[in-house]
Design brief:
The structure holds two protein chains of two kinds. Chain A contains seven helices and no strands. Chain A is mostly helical. Chain B is an alpha+beta fold. Chain B contains six helices and 19 strands. In chain B, strands 2-3-4-7-6-5-8-9 form an eight-stranded antiparallel β-sheet. In chain B, a hairpin with a 4-residue loop joins strand 3 and strand 4. The two termini of chain B are 38 Å apart. The chains are: A mainly alpha, B alpha+beta.
C-alpha cells in the first residue's frame, strides 16, 4: 500500500484528529500543533514506504508526530513553559468534567500513553510500538497515569 | 473510569473540531510548494548541559564506512529522495537503519549551500543516531566534461567540534563520503557521509560544528590511484574546494544512544601479558562500539601494538540474555589518539571493537566477556 494522492486524502480524513491530538498532548499549544500536524502529513505525502494496511499508516503517523513534537520541545526556539490556554475550546455540557485539561496536567511520560489508550483505544503493546519503549515501561506508566488521574478526580469529588 | 475515557474522547474530538483548520488540499498544495525546506543557515539549538567526559580527546581520525548513492527525484524533498536511496540494495546502498530513521522523522533539514567556480555543495540534512550521524550533501557540478565522464564522486569531509580546544587543537573527525548521480538532473550528485562519535567524546549535537569539505574527487570506474600527485591533483581527479559550513544541530535531531562511560571506573581485562582498560560502550542502532585503552606509564608504544589488540579482539564477546554476540572483525579498528591529562597531551592506544546492534532496553542481561574474564553491563 503506497501513498497515492487518493490514499493520502483518505488517510488525512481518517487520522487528522489522531495526529492533532497526539501533537497537542506534547506541545500543548494550538499554533505549534497545527504546524506539526501539517508537517506530519506532508511527510506522509512524500513517504515512499510501503504500508501493510490502514493501521500501519496510523501507527506511522503517531510515531512521526511524536518524534516531531519531541524535536520541537527540545529545540531552543521553543519555550516549553507555554501555559495552557485559560479555556480550551470545546463544547461541554454542565455535567461534563474537564477531562482534557486533567490529562494535559499529567507529566508527559504518563500523559501520552494515557492519551493513546483513551483516545485511540490502543493496547499496551501498540503504545509500546509507536513510542518505541518496552511494554513493561508503558504498562507501568499507563497504570501510574491512570492512578494520578483518579486521584485528581477523587479530590474534586468527581468519581 | 470507563465513563471518564468516553468523556475524554468526546471532549478531545470536540476540541479538535473547533481548532483544526487545515484541509487535505491545503497540505497537498504546501507539499507541492516544497515548503518544508528551511531557509535558516544555522539550525536552532540548545546548550548541552550533559556532564563532560573525563577523557578529552584532542584529535582522532578514523576510517569510515560510507555508502554510494543512487537517488531518484532530485526535485523532490529530502525524505523522498533518500528513502529511495537507502532502499537500493542492487547497488549495495541498502541501509535499513537509516531508512527507518528517515521514515520516522528522525532527521533535521539544514539546507546550507556554498559555491565556488565549479561546485555548489548543499548540506541538505542530518539523520542517523547520536553515535553515528549521517550527513547528506547535494553536489552540483558546473563542468560538462566532468559530469559526462563520472557517475560517482567522493567528498573529503572533516567535522570539527568548536566547543573543544586543548592546547590549540580542536576535536575533529574526518572521512570520505560517496555519492552517485541523480537520475533526472545530470549534474547533480547525492552524497552521504557517516560520522562517528569517536571515543565517546565528539559530540555532533548541541555544540557548534565546523563542517569542512576540502575536496571533490572523481575516479573513473571508481579506481582510485595508489598515490596522489598533489601538483597534478586535477589530473588525478581531485578538485580542491574550501567550503565551511557552521552549524549547531539540535540535540533532539536524531535518536539518542545508550552510552556507558567506564573511563573513571578502572575496569581492566588481562590478556596475555597486557592489561586493557574498558573506557566506553555505545549501544547504537547501527551496532555496539566498545572502546579499550592500553594504559602506559611512559607513553611509549611499540609500533605493532595494534596487533596485540587483534588478539584481544578474538576473545571478546557480548552475552545478551544468554546469546553470544560475536565481534564484527571487519569494522574493528585500532589507533593512537591524543588525550589531555591534567593539561598535558599524551598519546594513548585506543582499540575500538564493533559488534552487531542489540536492543539495549529490551535486553534483560548484557555481559562483556574476554576469555575467562567477564563484566556485567546490565
Amino acid at each position: 500500500m503506497m501513498i497515492t494522492q487518493d490514499i493520502f486524502l483518505e488517510a488525512y480524513d481518517k487520522y487528522k484528529s489522531t495526529v492533532y491530538s497526539v501533537i497537542f498532548n506534547y506541545v500543548k499549544n494550538t499554533d505549534d500543533t497545527k504546524d506539526l500536524q501539517q508537517e506530519t502529513f506532508i511527510r506522509l505525502l512524500r513517504c515512499e514506504k510501503e504500508f501493510n494496511d490502514w493501521e500501519h499508516i496510523k501507527a506511522w503517523l503517531i510515531k512521526v508526530s511524536a518524534n516531531l513534537s519531541k524535536n520541537l520541545l527540545k529545540s531552543k526556539s521553543y519555550t516549553s513553559e507555554i501555559p495552557l490556554p485559560e479555556t480550551l475550546s470545546y463544547k461541554m455540557t454542565e455535567e461534563d468534567v474537564d477531562i482534557v485539561n486533567m490529562v494535559l496536567a499529567l507529566p508527559e511520560k504518563y500523559r501520552i500513553p494515557v492519551h493513546l489508550h483513551y483516545f485511540e483505544d490502543y493496547s499496551v503493546k501498540q503504545i509500546a510500538e509507536v513510542l518505541e519503549a518496552p511494554e513493561s515501561t508503558i504498562k507501568v506508566r499507563l497504570k501510574r497515569g491512570r492512578e494520578k488521574l483518579k486521584k485528581v478526580l477523587q479530590k474534586e469529588n468527581l468519581i | 473510569m470507563k465513563e471518564i475515557k468516553e468523556k475524554y474522547k468526546k471532549q478531545m474530538e470536540s476540541f479538535f473540531g473547533s481548532n483544526c483548520d487545515w484541509s487535505a488540499d491545503d497540505i497537498v498544495k504546501l507539499a507541492d510548494e516544497n515548503t518544508t525546506e528551511t531557509d535558516g543557515k544555522t539550525v536552532e539549538f540548545k546548550s548541552r548541559k550533559r556532564k563532560k567526559k573525563a577523557w578529552k580527546v584532542a584529535a582522532i581520525v578514523a576510517c569510515l564506512v560510507v555508502m554510494g548513492t543512487t537517488v531518484l527525484a532530485a526535485t523532490g524533498t529530502f525524505g523522498a529522495i533518500y528513502q529511495k536511496y537507502f532502499k537500493d540494495d542492487e547497488n549495495g546502498t541498502e541501509d535499513k537503519v537509516t531508512l527507518g530513521f528517515v521514515e520516522d522523522g528522525n532527521y533535521v533539514e539544514v539546507n546550507q549551500s556554498l559555491t565556488d567556480d565549479i561546485f555548489t555543495i548543499n548540506l541538505v540534512a542530518v539523520s542517523g543516531d547520536e553515535a553515528y550521524p549521517v550527513f547528506f550533501f547535494d553536489v552540483y557540478v558546473d563542468d560538462e566534461t566532468l559530469v559526462a565522464e563520472n557517475d560517482t564522486i567522493e567528498l573529503s569531509v572533516i567535522i570539527e567540534n568548536q566547543a573543544y580546544e586543548i592546547n590549540g587543537m580542536t576535536l575533529y573527525y574526518g572521512g570520505t563520503g560517496y555519492g552517485t548521480k541523480d537520475d533526472k538532473i545530470s549534474n547533480l550528485y547525492h552524497v552521504t557521509w557517516k560520522g562517528e562519535k569517536a571515543s565517546g567524546n565528539l559530540d555532533f549535537f548541541g555544540e557548534p560544528l565546523e563542517i569542512r569539505v576540502s575536496s571533490v574527487e572523481f575516479y573513473l570506474n571508481r579506481q582510485k590511484p595508489d598515490t596522489i600527485d598533489n601538483e597534478n591533483a586535477k589530473e588525478n581527479g581531485i578538485y580542491s574546494v574550501n567550503m565551511e559550513y557552521s552549524v549547531t544541530l539540535p540535540e533532539s535531531a536524531v535518536t539518542s544512544t545508550v552510552v556507558k562511560d567506564y573511563s573513571e571506573e578502572n575496569i581492566l581485562f588481562n590478556y596475555e601479558d597486557d592489561v586493557y582498560k574498558l573506557e566506553y560502550v555505545d549501544f547504537s542502532a547501527y551496532g555496539i562500539s566498545c572502546k579499550f585503552s592500553i594504559p602506559s606509564s611512559d607513553g611509549v608504544y611499540e609500533e605493532d601494538c595494534c596487533n596485540y589488540y587483534d588478539e584481544l579482539c578474538q576473545n571478546l564477546q557480548f552475552v545478551v540474555d544468554g546469546n553470544v554476540i560475536c565481534l564484527d572483525t571487519e569494522s574493528s579498528t585500532c589507533g593512537i589518539v591524543m588525550f589531555e591529562d591534567e593539561g598535558k597531551i599524551i598519546d594513548v592506544v585506543l582499540y575500538e571493537a564493533y559488534f552487531p546492534a542489540i536492543d539495549y532496553d529490551q535486553a534483560g542481561s548484557i555481559v562483556l566477556q574476554c576469555g575467562e574474564e567477564s563484566f556485567t553491563i546490565k
